[in-house]
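Hi everyone, sorry if this is the wrong subforum. Our group has a chain we'd like a structural model of before ordering constructs, and none of us has done structure prediction before. Sequence below.
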Amino acid sequence: MISFQKVSKSYAIYDAPSDRLKELLTLNRLRKHREFKALDSISFEVKPGETFCIIGENGSGKSTMLQIIAGILQPTSGEARVKGRVAALLELGSGFNPDFSGRDNVYLNAAILGLSHEETAKRFQSIEEFAEIGEFLDQPVKTYSSGMAVRLAFSVAIHVDPEILLVDEALAVGDVYFRQRCLRKVHELRQRGVTILFVSHSMGDVKAIGDRVLWLDKGRIRELGPTDVVVSKYLAEMTAKDSSFVEHQAEHRTEAKTIGQAPSLVTTIPNVDHRHGDGRAEILGITVLNENLEPALMLEPNAKCIVRISAKAKERIALPNIGFMMRNHMGIDFAGSNTIREGYELPQMAAGDTVTVDFQLDLPELYPSHFSFSPAIADGSLLNYKMCDWIDNALVLQMSHGEGQVYGYLHLPCRIEVNRV
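Answer:
Right subforum, don't worry. Here is the predicted structure as tokens:
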């Protein structure tokens, strides 16, 4: 249905508007522009009935590719072949006249897509029912919200019996209800054999409907293949890029957050069941303090406590993340947290640096059993990190009995109100 053979699309970029005039006056003998390749030697084929998804960062060339398929743009070089009627939903309300009513724009848009007035009239009720914009159908499109405009545009596009449907991130502005209806309609079109090209930043939608995925990166094909494989690689790349950005920010941070008076260093580790990590930093100690800042002998229900953890860097740690996991008597992870999870970015640590972090907790009323604390220090973000040191069950404390019975794992704060009729 669609074939690209070494397709490239270039644009002339001028530093100033006057440079374009200078080129024209010199009959292009004076070159005042530079070439920007939105697409660079792209080759692929889309089979009939296939749902072909295109992903990539903003500016990677996704919209340019769809505009070439729709016939809006012509490639600078290479050959792009498209067979069949194309319905395109590329930009919000594209093909709509803002001063016309929604009703008039339905006929106008359908005519652009190749339907006669009579054919559109036969399908008008279905278009109206799917769009669900009510009395606004007879109001000027310029009064529509972005969601209403895309409802009407999508409804027209799917009711002209396209052989190829192009959707470029248009559903992102729709509400959840309408997006779900659109995705169900996409599945119906797939079953009818319609070829679909779908551009989206929502990897959930891509994985739900895509047969194959093309990953564009700066105008070139980075990956082309099965949906799960390509999406996994793309998400891994984006996660690594985000972690690199966070690390860069940490390196160039000029002022750290106000920490207050430094707590004393903890150097005791009561127990080590298992310890693992790459060793670039180590946990020096862990303790739990009561409200009087004394080492807690037991955990008290409905009380405040501090989980204090000290760590030391042996090498440079760009984005330190210190935390703990709390386990119950069966060894099940019960609760936990870390500095990044709580919105606090520690400054980077050089070799030899030490840091002590206090996690101030409001304990609920837990069932009376023993709970262990496993401290850890890692380097990186929540999604992409390297564990430096993790100590299983370094500290174990018993939860004392509260005033009442605890049903299940914990007693939720509860207020009872009785209403009599």
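For your construct planning: The CA atoms of residues 43 and 113 lie 27 Å apart. The chain has two domains: 2-243, 274-398.
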